[in-house]
Amino acid sequence: MERVGSSPLTGVRYAYHFDAGLYAQHLRGVAESLGVVRHEGKVAHVEQRPEDGFIDALVLESGARIAAELFIDCSGFRALLIEGALRAGYDDWRRWLPCDRALAVASARVTPLRPYTQANARTAGWQWRIPLQARSGNGHVYCSEFISDDEAASVLLANLE
Q1: What is an example of a Pfam family matching this protein (predicted)?
Q2: Which of the 8 DSSP states describes residue 31?
Q3: Is the domain of 31 the same as that of 72?
Q4: CA dihedral 19, 24, 30, 34 (to 10 degrees)
């Protein structure tokens, strides 16, 4: 790519933005077509192998027992498997990145479609805008020590296009 000006991106006229929801649906379909089985439910108990601590099975609140060779922890900040069962440890980055909350909202599609994600600094974090084909994805990542949830929502909504 030829450099124009001081940025290596000056001459770029395209980019790829994927709708995360649609992409997740696609990946789920591909995985299930290959035999992956997805289970929903609340984990009541984690069974671990005594010899190495690896997870053998999950017991759900419904009583269902799910044994497998691979488990993916989708419990978010609760980290039920990786931290609750495996005690893998948590690296606290608050010293460098104090933001501990995020809000997201969709808005109308912006035309012309911009080939980049826009990130703007805010008083207690930053706000993003991701242009997609059918809509724009927007969000505000912030530190709750410096701004309330209601104030953060107001900042986000006040700065939508």
Answers
A1: Trp_halogenase
A2: H
A3: yes
A4: 170
Residues 108 and 145 in one domain: yes
Report the SS3 class of residue 57: strand
- The domain containing residue 106 runs over which residues? 101-158
pLDDT at res. 3: 45
Rg (CA), the chain: 21
Same domain, 133 and 79: no
Q: Quick one: tokens of 148?
A: 């309330």
pTM, full prediction: 0.68
Domain count, the chain: 2
Strand order in the sheet with 125-131: 101-107, 136-142, 125-131, 118-122
* pLDDT the model gives residue 1: 43
- Is 6 inside any structural domain? no
DSSP 3-state of 142:
strand
Q: Is residue 152 part of a domain?
A: yes
